[in-house]
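Ops channel
N.P.: pipeline sanity check, posting one input/output pair.
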């Protein structure tokens, strides 16, 4: 096994990313120019994947792939003694969302057989190539158009796609992930700074990630204007054509149906009990008892990725502003990928 070389390669990859992200354009060398051009190519092919959002995702990975973080993560697991081929059907809703699965498979001493999302075709191959270089050629991976010749599969898709995948892979060891979203519960005494952190949880990646907050619980006497005031840092989001199209469409539907909503010209708040909300809309409800919130969470547990709230509320939650900063030991759908890979 080449785990030590692979870990060293990840640490070197982290340093490479940090160095690139700190540089100013005028200080780029030829390799930096190629990297920047690849980011632009990815944005042209998928306008949701802006260079800014790409660099945000790259910074998160650069911060995660340190020696301490990796070793603290891996100490809980034992690499497989028998190397197997693990099929990966990657999502493409936000940049690099499938990278954690790829790294997990490699560090479990398996070979990832990767079917990329058509929305995210460039960055993962680029980073894997770099990782392999930094690991002295000790990282095995394959890219395929159709999964064949594999021992287990990890796949991510919409709820409809997941039903098909569950049937198709019913005779294989599998993890099949479905649609999820995230919620926030406000105590009512949040500062402006804390509400601005909440805005990051809502608007980062245009709200397209499963860790983005789409459902909000607020106390009965909470003043909605405070939300709009503290969301202003993201007002430029409306200048993105695809986001603006969603905003205009949903606003027109609400007006046509004479539905009540609150609007600040780049996001709408709608009093609605539904967990999922359309892009550019945040569903919210007022609560008088925290028990009602806990009941909602219990009833929707399978569809909630994470809960954002202050510790004082006593929920199994993360801090405001931390939704898009998961650790290496944070797993999609709360299914421990590394434990699955230990026993396949």
């Amino acid at each position: 096994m080449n785990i030590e070389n692979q870990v060293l390669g990840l640490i070197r990859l982290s340093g490479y990313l940090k160095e690139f992200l700190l540089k100013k354009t005028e200080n780029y060398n030829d390799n930096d120019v190629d990297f920047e051009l690849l980011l632009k190519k990815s944005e042209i092919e998928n306008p949701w994947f802006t260079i800014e959002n790409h660099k945000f995702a790259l910074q998160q990975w650069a911060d995660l792939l340190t020696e301490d973080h990796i070793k603290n993560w891996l100490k809980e697991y034992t690499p497989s003694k028998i190397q197997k081929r693990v099929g990966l059907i990657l999502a493409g809703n936000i940049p690099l969302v499938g990278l954690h699965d790829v790294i997990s498979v490699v560090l479990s001493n398996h070979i990832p057989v990767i079917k990329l999302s058509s929305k995210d075709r460039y960055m993962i191959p680029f980073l894997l190539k770099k990782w392999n270089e930094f690991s002295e050629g000790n990282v095995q991976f394959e890219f395929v158009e159709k999964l064949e010749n594999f021992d287990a599969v990890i796949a991510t898709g919409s709820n409809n796609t997941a039903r098909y995948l569950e049937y198709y892979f019913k005779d294989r060891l599998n993890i099949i992930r479905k649609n999820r979203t995230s919620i926030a519960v406000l105590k009512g005494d949040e500062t402006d700074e804390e509400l601005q952190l909440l805005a990051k949880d809502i608007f980062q990646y245009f709200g397209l990630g499963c860790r983005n907050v789409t459902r909000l619980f607020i106390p009965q006497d909470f003043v909605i204007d405070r939300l709009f005031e503290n969301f202003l840092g993201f007002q430029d989001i409306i200048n993105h054509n695809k986001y603006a199209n969603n905003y205009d469409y949903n606003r027109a539907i609400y007006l046509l149906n004479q539905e009540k909503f609150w609007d600040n010209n780049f996001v709408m708040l709608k009093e609605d009990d539904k967990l999922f909300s359309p892009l550019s809309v945040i569903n919210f409800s007022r609560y008088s008892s925290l028990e009602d919130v806990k009941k909602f969470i219990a009833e929707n547990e399978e569809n909630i990725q994470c809960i954002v709230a202050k510790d004082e509320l006593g929920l199994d939650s993360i801090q405001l502003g931390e939704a898009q900063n998961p650790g290496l030991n944070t797993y999609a759908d709360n299914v421990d990928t590394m434990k699955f890979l230990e026993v396949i």
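N.P.: looks fine end to end. The chain is about 40% helix and 15% strand.
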